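User: For my dataset I need records formatted as: sequence, then structure tokens, nothing else. Please produce one.
Assistant:
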Amino acid sequence: MYIKLDKKLTVSADTIEVISIKKEGRNINSIREIEKIADWIEFLPHYFDHIQIDNLLIGKRRLHILYLNDIFYIDNDALQVAAKISYHPDTKKIAVDLHRLLLKDPHVTLVGKFTYDIPLRRWRGKGHYSGFGIEGSYNVVERKNRIHFILDSKPFASLKPLVDYLNPIEPIKEWIYPRIPAKKYILHRMNGEIFIKKDGGIVFDPARIEASATAYNAKIHFQKGVTPVVTPRIDISYKNDVLSFKLSKPTFAGKPLDGSHVEIRELSKRSAKLDAHIVVEGAIDDDIVRLLASYDVNLPFVQTEGKTEAIVDLTIKLVGVSILKYHGDYRTERATLLFDRTISIPVHNLHVISKKSDIVIERCRIKMDPYIDASLRGTIDLHAKRGLFEPLIHRMGYSLGQIPLFDMREKEVPVVLDYKNGTTFSAEKLALKLLYRQGGAHISLLSISKLHPYFTGPLKPLQKGRIDIDIDKKETKAIGRVTYENKVIFQKGRPLETFVFNAMHNGNKTDISIDDAIKAVLEQNNVSVTIRESDIYIDRLLDTIEDYLSRDKNDLAENGHNHTIAVEGYDGTLFYDTLQLPCRKYSANMETNPLRVKFITKHRSGEIHGLVTGDRLHIAGDNLPDYIVRGLTTIDAIHGGTFSFEAKGSPHYFKGTIRMQDTVWAKNALYNNILATLNTIPAVLTLKNPGFSKKGFKIKKGAIEYHYKKPTLYLDTVLLKGESANVTGAGAIDFKKKSVDMKLQVHFLESLTNVLGKIPVAGYLIFGKDKTIAITLKVNGPLKNPKVTTETAKEIIKAPLNILQRTLSLPFKLFK
């Protein structure tokens, strides 16, 4: 050690050790170190000219000190100081021109000017600092072991070094950085207080800090994997342990969030909470749904169309992340909501209030023209994934083309939503359940009877049963058992009213099977139907669908579409009013635009061909058995033989010819009454074989020319050739009055030469040149028991019998 005694002391030493009687182990930090040094600074200018101590040992602390030309240097493990120090005796203050103060932990450099009031033991200063990649100015005042400071900064690039040094608990650290990174930061002002303990330690109280800053070109990452909020500027403030973020022109996935802000309360504590106030104008799309889902707010829908104004308030506990409060308010005039990626529902005037675990849907309007118009309100429990809706259905309907099938009006129908596994809508009042799952859906109509009051048109006779429908991306399947009040299709003489069916729709094709008796294939505009062992009442079918056909016809005329329907049947009877046509096989092809129907029926070896075009028809049959004629004419007096016929015209007016061969006419009221009348004529009684007997009248060949004008069948000419007599005539049958009015002439072929002188000659007898006789009969009255009388006739009817004679001589050909 070297000491020079002059006016002022010069001290130079390699090592000086100061023995302290106080206990070691106290926490001495950089700020407290400065204050200790200041205690003896006032003596330096008075007693020392030069001081150099390479190693000053105070307890476990080592300092290097240099004092020269009023410049004071100090260096130890905690700090480095280079300052010009001047003492003012009159004010007892020390002025320090701080050239450099380096706090080694943290690595912060200060420059500036300080004053230390020795009597008051108070110091103050201001200047500039740099550290953690940040530069700025400071202003500090120490009073009663409390340091009050004010800071600002120049623009800087990152908070990461400062946040890493402060090292708050992890969730809070994340929310300062890296959850909210920015391209540039500026600290406008930070003022706070540090308390210096007696042992030299410091207490930093965040609650006494206030700050304001700005972050530029920032992002807010609410959750990993979720689209961040982007904003060109965040104004940040900190006060009362609350860190607030005011966002300027923020956007989320391109949607504006103007008016949104975020704050973190109790930032310095483990009870820290994040409050987010988010204002969104746009669709509640996948990005927003994912954001809410990351906080366990699982919306069951996504918005695909429309604009929504949403205000969401969210409180999150940052340590042990959990939702403490959630409140959302969503409003839209028009939107389309997609439930479970499957069900698309358009809504109007929607107002949704979403709380932590509940969604409340205020009264809104659902319109899916032309199917449904309803008002709806309800709630959804987000945790239970269950909802209850109370829709008022103003109108719900469905039509197939122009044919109405379902109509419900002004009906309240509670609906339960469950979306734990797929999405299920259940309406107990209607016994209806719809299960939507990824890639498809299952629809159950559990009790048709509950839907029956709303069926219309051809569905109105649907009484009860159950139908299950499965829908996926490739096909739709339906199975069911239903009771349908039916008067059209019969089996074994009884109406078929219980239908077990299954159906499959794939692409443009639909296959339907009913009780294995009816199969149908629908493909685009074509329909084909196969019917087995079933009887069809055509008049009832036409009455049922007449109104629907006329509507469809109008629709077809407007859009020009053409539909084809092909029907094929086996072993069944076709009924029309009192007529019946037993068929071994029948087929029909119908085109709807324009209307054209072509059909063929087969009966043993015979066939009937028909063609209907618009209001014109052409029907012909050949080689038909007797039972076909009995069924078609309702005349049960024909037995055996074969028949052919032709009809041309319209359904209300047509004409044609009927031909017959090897048949017998007998056993009906008309024949019996004719036979009784003939038996009263002496001339007939003398004939060996008059042709008429109790067994009937045998017809070798016959032909009838007729025309029909509803409701009357006009028999224009009748020619029946028997073995011993021929019958000719004309007349009419009125089906509405069920009456007959005819004139018949029976021409007996046996000669009466031997008996002509023995019988009286009556006026109703006509004698031919060959001595044969003809009798004229008048038939009128009810069909069930017509009156037959003889009538005076002048000659044997010949014309137009000649035409019929030629008809009988020509072969009959069916048209193709």
